[in-house]
């Protein structure tokens, strides 16, 4: 009898865990290159993307493209670890974490300035709000056009101080990455014309 109760408890826990993964937003999109498919899979993400766009006046296609590139929509993404003696895993290369790959200091600043003290980088709603907030700061601090995904991404990667100093010019690889992110944002924008809620 004890064995059967333990077995049933384990089975129930497994089923609850599986249901929460399927019904919730803990997984990754099946169609990461198609924003309509992403929003069909995770309806709450579309609500969050629209809310971020309305709050910060940064197109949701740009915010979604940033998250796709930064984390591949992986809620617990982290940079690689340093290798000690080329073998032993050491510390992560930076404190970047979660959907937006925001570093600790910038995330703390976001929480302080927005009042979102409970925000988590593993929460999609918080993450896309952060991306909109950061890009809005880039618009204000560096006079970047809000639809200029290319330069917004350079500021996102280098920080607004680094962008102002044009640190990206010494990184040809980063310029290519920014082009790819901007192209993804454009593709998402075209797709959204077909699946966005009509007002």
Write a structural description:
With 199 residues, this protein is mostly helical. Helix content is 63%, strand content 5%. It has 8 helices and 2 strands. It has a two-stranded antiparallel sheet with strand order 1-2. Helix 4 (60-71) crosses helix 8 (172-195). It is globular, with a radius of gyration of 19 Å.
Quick take:
The protein is mainly alpha-helical and 199 residues long. Helices cover 63% and strands 5% of the residues. Helix 3 crosses helix 4, helix 6 (124-142) packs across helix 7 and helix 7 (149-164) packs antiparallel against helix 8.
SSE inventory with pairings:
Layout: H1 2-23, H2 35-41, H3 43-56, H4 60-71, E1 81-84, E2 88-92, H5 104-114, H6 124-142, H7 149-164, H8 172-195
Antiparallel strand pairs: 1-2
Helix pairs in contact: 2-3, 3-4, 3-6, 4-6, 4-8, 6-7, 7-8
Poorly predicted sequence stretches spanning 5 or more consecutive residues: 1-24
Q: What gross morphology would you assign? A: globular
Helix content: 55-70%
The fraction of residues in strands falls at under 5%
Number of helices: 8
Structural class of the helices, strands and pairings? mainly alpha
What is the overall pLDDT average? 85
Specify Rg, calculated over alpha carbons. 19 Å
Instruction: Give, in spatial order, the strands making up the sheet with the most strands.
Output: 1-2
Number of strands: 2
